[in-house]
């Protein structure tokens, strides 16, 4: 086993250069002879890190000045509750567009706090495909419209923006944030758990338009209140400082690599290699329509559970980790986030070819 490639859906692999820098600085950060984990989160040096991380993230996504960037805790699941507590207003209800496990889970949680209407946008036949995305005629009756543009379990990605007219569009981008260019101004709120493309598990980014801040229901816990967090620099309690530090390194790394434009080119190249092989294979199949195939999470199966298990076991022996599909769907899943080099995808295809020759 000459090299190991980690295809985990999350916590996922991080850029090697970032991990190496963190390793070098682990016990001596900023010449303080101490770790970044051991310094005050309100001290001058850490507050400088905070300011730079916000500025770098804003530059990566060209985030307009009228948006706040919050670094919170609780993962995307925490935001499933925080969003209705902060955004449900006079209309009293929200619309959830569901196309997989995570969008449906978000809708289920939101029902604890508000009236929720749900529309399944996934059309199921022999392939999974996203159907109608024009909701402009009904969206105005809702305080916001929520969707998940990339479903990690099924490998379905929505590349076109839902048309919600003048309504507030909310997106769970946990699994595709920073993977391709987007126009942040089209959204009212974007949120993402860090453990795919941003950094380690334990920190969550929220990008929220300023006019949406300050309307939380009175019983909203302060840790979930966007106004409280915004006024406190995301520090009403001690933040996960090491996770924040690692995110800051990732942002600088991405900028040095050419930003999101460069990441998108690489991600499209990686995904195309793997999908092209799957399309010509006689053993494996992908069941997502081409226009909705995820750039981040490539799902496939042999159609035989025993053979799938053999594939995963032998892949692991060959240095290809975490290829077992989610328990909800089964099969296999290769998560090829920003940090996955093209060498990893090429190594996976080479193994798949060998396995197909031996088991086809």
TrEMBL record:
<feature type="binding site">
    <location>
        <position position="42"/>
    </location>
    <ligand>
        <name>L-glutamate</name>
    </ligand>
</feature>
<dbReference type="GO" id="GO:0004648">
    <property type="term" value="F:O-phospho-L-serine:2-oxoglutarate aminotransferase activity"/>
</dbReference>
<dbReference type="InterPro" id="IPR015422">
    <property type="entry name" value="PyrdxlP-dep_Trfase_small"/>
</dbReference>
<dbReference type="GO" id="GO:0008615">
    <property type="term" value="P:pyridoxine biosynthetic process"/>
</dbReference>
<keyword id="KW-0664">Pyridoxine biosynthesis</keyword>
<feature type="binding site">
    <location>
        <position position="152"/>
    </location>
    <ligand>
        <name>pyridoxal 5'-phosphate</name>
    </ligand>
</feature>
<feature type="binding site">
    <location>
        <begin position="237"/>
        <end position="238"/>
    </location>
    <ligand>
        <name>pyridoxal 5'-phosphate</name>
    </ligand>
</feature>
<dbReference type="InterPro" id="IPR000192">
    <property type="entry name" value="Aminotrans_V_dom"/>
</dbReference>
<feature type="binding site">
    <location>
        <position position="102"/>
    </location>
    <ligand>
        <name>pyridoxal 5'-phosphate</name>
    </ligand>
</feature>
<comment type="pathway">
    <text>Amino-acid biosynthesis; L-serine biosynthesis; L-serine from 3-phospho-D-glycerate: step 2/3.</text>
</comment>
<keyword id="KW-0808">Transferase</keyword>
<feature type="binding site">
    <location>
        <position position="172"/>
    </location>
    <ligand>
        <name>pyridoxal 5'-phosphate</name>
    </ligand>
</feature>
<protein>
    <recommendedName>
        <fullName>Phosphoserine aminotransferase</fullName>
        <ecNumber>2.6.1.52</ecNumber>
    </recommendedName>
</protein>
<keyword id="KW-0718">Serine biosynthesis</keyword>
<comment type="similarity">
    <text>Belongs to the class-V pyridoxal-phosphate-dependent aminotransferase family. SerC subfamily.</text>
</comment>
<feature type="domain" description="Aminotransferase class V">
    <location>
        <begin position="4"/>
        <end position="348"/>
    </location>
</feature>
<keyword id="KW-0663">Pyridoxal phosphate</keyword>
<feature type="modified residue" description="N6-(pyridoxal phosphate)lysine">
    <location>
        <position position="196"/>
    </location>
</feature>
<dbReference type="GO" id="GO:0006564">
    <property type="term" value="P:L-serine biosynthetic process"/>
</dbReference>
<keyword id="KW-0032">Aminotransferase</keyword>
<keyword id="KW-0963">Cytoplasm</keyword>
<dbReference type="InterPro" id="IPR020578">
    <property type="entry name" value="Aminotrans_V_PyrdxlP_BS"/>
</dbReference>
<dbReference type="GO" id="GO:0005737">
    <property type="term" value="C:cytoplasm"/>
</dbReference>
<comment type="function">
    <text>Catalyzes the reversible conversion of 3-phosphohydroxypyruvate to phosphoserine and of 3-hydroxy-2-oxo-4-phosphonooxybutanoate to phosphohydroxythreonine.</text>
</comment>
<dbReference type="InterPro" id="IPR022278">
    <property type="entry name" value="Pser_aminoTfrase"/>
</dbReference>
<feature type="binding site">
    <location>
        <position position="195"/>
    </location>
    <ligand>
        <name>pyridoxal 5'-phosphate</name>
    </ligand>
</feature>
<feature type="binding site">
    <location>
        <begin position="76"/>
        <end position="77"/>
    </location>
    <ligand>
        <name>pyridoxal 5'-phosphate</name>
    </ligand>
</feature>
<comment type="pathway">
    <text>Cofactor biosynthesis; pyridoxine 5'-phosphate biosynthesis; pyridoxine 5'-phosphate from D-erythrose 4-phosphate: step 3/5.</text>
</comment>
<dbReference type="Pfam" id="PF00266">
    <property type="entry name" value="Aminotran_5"/>
</dbReference>
<dbReference type="GO" id="GO:0030170">
    <property type="term" value="F:pyridoxal phosphate binding"/>
</dbReference>
<dbReference type="InterPro" id="IPR015424">
    <property type="entry name" value="PyrdxlP-dep_Trfase"/>
</dbReference>
<comment type="subunit">
    <text>Homodimer.</text>
</comment>
<dbReference type="InterPro" id="IPR015421">
    <property type="entry name" value="PyrdxlP-dep_Trfase_major"/>
</dbReference>
<keyword id="KW-0028">Amino-acid biosynthesis</keyword>
